[in-house]
Amino acid sequence: MSGLLVNRLRNRVVILGLVGLFLSIFMSSTALGYLRTRNYRVFFAVHITLAPILPVVLFWHVSHLRTYIWEVVGVYILMMATRSRNIGTYPGTVSLIPGTNLIKMDIPLASDTIPQNWKPGQHVYVSLPATSEASPTVKDLIRQRYRTNPFTIASLPHEDGRITLVARTLDGNTKRLAALARSLCDQADDDKNTPSIAITIEGPYGASSRLPDLASYDYVLLLAGGVGATFVLPVFRSIVGRSHWPSPAAASPQIRFVWTVRRLAEVRWAFPAAANSGGAATNVGSNAEVEVYVTQNGQALHDGAQDGDLEMAEGVNLLHTGSEAEKIGGSDVKHGRPDLKRIVDDAFAQPRGKVAVLVCGPKRMTEETRELVGRWVRKGRDVYWHAEAFGL
After folding, report:
1. How many angstroms separate the CA atoms of 211 and 214, rounded?
2. Are 50 and 27 spatial neighbours (Cβ–Cβ below 8 Å)?
3. Confidence at 146, pLDDT banded by 50, 70, 90
4. Which of 153, 250, 260, 339 would staple 293 via disulfide (CB 3.0–4.6 Å)?
5. What residue ranges are annotated as transmembrane (predicted)?
6. DSSP 8-state code for residue 76
7. What are the structural domains of the chain?
């Protein structure tokens, strides 16, 4: 019996079957939520490396699998051909946002290069530039192809004429982008003349393209945590910026945008004009309100504030002044964490009406909001819920 087992283990069919089983188990293990969250780079590298090998192993494993493998190859080729239509390389800038660990990319676009199907809150995949400036090697091109990260489009390309991407610096590609931003800043004559580089983007993608018409709701509650505002802010701007509502007699929805950040400087990218000039923020309308919660204590805020941070707070009306006119023109800042229960209950203060709740932030924030909104759903209220994934 043992001799039969040894002989079978020398058989090509058995060997390739075991190799295929090992590859499947290894890829599935690294895809577990805990491991993927702890080290996304390992998950990504394992799948990029092993996924193309598995079909080859199965192809030679047994002959009756080959029909399915050819189907996989056909679907893959079709997918790559489709994706290639959404890939473009544009000149853009990469910079650091002062007083934070955030990086920002600005990519100007000509009006004829902006697809008409782009929607607020979608994301694109960004590839790092090749390291060899003159003639990139094959190794550089492979790195550029696989060193991609998803970034939510924080702007409205059709209105702004540019793609703005904001991300927090962590490990991997964002760390490399931060180093690149510092290098470009050192080459610049001043902060306004940062050298442009070639940035390759693919997209846009995302479930936000299937969002309902939020203007048809009576109350829209938008919650963001940290860089989760890159999803929420464009959605907010698209609702507030609507030039007309479904019908002249229809009332515009009440909109509340609540944004939680660690430091006041983290809102700098969202209010660039107010941050740079100290002027008032763009009027968001009497039916919309923006609240910024700074979780650091007040002393830490003042001690860590860089040039323009406190002026920005006054310029965009982030601090309560008791003036209703000033409040309409900008945002309010409150120190501490938001009372999500009170905020959600306020959205359902009216006994009737449709309510839309959109959230993008840390997992704990999303889960708590889901539970609070679920209580009103169980009471029979008409609710639209959308939680945008915050990282992986």
Report:
1. 8
2. yes
3. low
4. 260
5. 12-35, 42-62, 219-236
6. H
7. 2-84 (no CATH), 87-207 (2.40.30.10), 209-388 (3.40.50.80)
